[in-house]
Amino acid sequence: MSNPKADSPAADENEVRLRPHPETASVVIFGASGDLTARKLLPALFDLWSDGYLSDQSPIIGVARREKTDESFRQEIYTAMNGQFRGGPISPEKWEQFSQRLFYRQLDIAIPDGYYAFKQELESIENRQGTGHNRIVYMATSPDLFLPAIEHLGFAKMIPDRDATEWLRVVFEKPFGHDLASAQELSGNLRRLLREQQIYRIDHYLGKETVQNILLFRFGNSIFEPLLNRNHVDHIQITVSESQGLERGRGGYYDNSGALRDVLQNHVLQLLCLIAMEPPALFNSNDLHEEKLKVLKAINAGNSGEITDWVVAGQYSAGTVDGKPAISYLSEERIPADSRTETFVAMKVKVDNWRWAGVPFYLRTGKRLPSRVSEIAIQFKHPPLNLFNTVECDGDICALVGAQPNKLVFRIQPSESIKLSFSTKRPGMQYQIHPVTMDFDYKTFTQPLPEAYERLLLDVLRGDSTLFMRSDELEAAWQFVTPILNFWSQKKTVPEPYRSGSWGPRAADDLLRSDGRQWRSPAQ
């Protein structure tokens, strides 16, 4: 007997709507010999293809200076990334099918001479694959090559005119400048060659499932959004911590960057925007960017006085992380013995608008902390009158404790989840509060979560820039951060040491203690 529901036209439409639509474009990766290509980009593209989102026709072309054949590139990529796919190791048959779309072309990106020949070879590959000339160029290179590469693409007539039928989208990895002036200069130079719609500044944090869920959770649930304002929220903490130090030889890059540039200016401020922004008029890229921009322009110092009154810089010393000894930052490879680069930064900021007036936002990020965790924790105000005793128990031993505020926690990594803590009556003859937690864990779903790069690359294929930073957002973030960098430079600020495996320097704790608050343990 047939199922009338399944036979209905509405059911057919829903099935079609849920079915993946394969996108077709050439994906050109500049800097394909680097770690990012094998560790993140190719596994993401493989998963997109496996799930039906990337067309069988789409070629993937790695570009770098080293001399390689297509076959050696394919074997090198397979060896480096097998086992990093969502579904685990892949069969040789499936890899053979996928790898036929992988090509390699030798090109010195910094020299214009080879681009005309590269264009001809790229068109030849596209013709053989039976695809058009729609292209994504992924700049997996050092930032100093961003502008020369785009200029050379322009000279080779590889940037389509505004009215052309084919399109080009260019993805840029951070950092996007090192201060406000350099970011403005880079954006201005790129806009001479590309339209803003062609520029995709990628921040992989925005591709994580829980980050995307913040918007749906806030604006898709009528019971929560009315609570997120100065009337109900006591304060908000945003933590992005890493347990690792400077693995994979990143010392040279990191010492010229530091925690403020490397993480807080982009990842942390973007998370702040998503939790603090107003509902957009429409759920589209432009309206979302406009609301995030308003938040960035409203961020201000959390305390009056000098920057040291609301910003703390730290640098890790030797200690123990995950039960293993960890060396100090100054002992890391390629780090000068007198380096003043911060590996930890904490700050108290405020968002000067109607919704958040008077609500402090505490931000922190650092390396060699006890665990790798990223989360947004919203702590609500206590009830105006405490009528009940709060009891906490460890086994059969119970004790009266201070009233516990309600908390809403978005765990971004690891174990992505959303948790809400509230109070209920403890069983028994007395009115006693017992704190409980209601949580949603993504492990509830049987299908594996897509990797952040997988989601973001699909958005580039679709031309959706919602999860990418617009140039005015970028400049507004630098507008806030640059005065701190200048202050540290002018005052020759020496970061406060903190032991590896701790949650940062003492001054970070004092930042909250002076307000009668304390940092939340991300394990809670």
Furnish the topology, listing elements before pairings:
Layout: H1 4-7, H2 9-18, E1 26-30, H3 35-50, E2 60-64, H4 70-81, H5 92-99, E3 102-106, H6 115-129, E4 135-139, H7 146-155, E5 168-172, H8 180-193, E6 199-201, H9 209-219, E7 233-241, H10 251-255, H11 258-276, H12 285-298, E8 299-301, E9 311-317, E10 319-321, E11 324-326, E12 344-351, E13 360-366, E14 373-380, E15 389-394, E16 397-401, E17 407-413, E18 417-425, E19 432-441, H13 452-462, H14 471-491, E20 496-499, H15 506-513
Parallel strand pairs: 1-2, 1-4, 2-3, 4-5, 5-6, 7-13, 9-20, 15-19
Antiparallel strand pairs: 7-14, 8-12, 9-12, 10-11, 12-13, 14-17, 15-16, 17-18, 18-19
Helix pairs in contact: 3-4, 3-13, 7-8, 8-14, 11-12, 11-14, 12-14
Write the CATH architecture name of the largest domain.
2-Layer Sandwich
Number of strands: 20
Percentage of helical residues?
A: 25-40%
Number of helices: 15
CATH superfamily assignment of the largest domain?
A: Dihydrodipicolinate Reductase, domain 2
What distance separates the N and C termini? 52 Å
CATH topology tier name of the largest domain: Dihydrodipicolinate Reductase, domain 2
In this structure, how is the largest beta sheet organized?
12 strands, mixed
Mean pLDDT: 89
The proportion of residues in beta strands is 15-25%
Overall structural domain count: 2
What is the 3D form?
globular
Category by helix and strand content? alpha/beta
Low-confidence stretches: 1-17
Radius of gyration: 25 Å
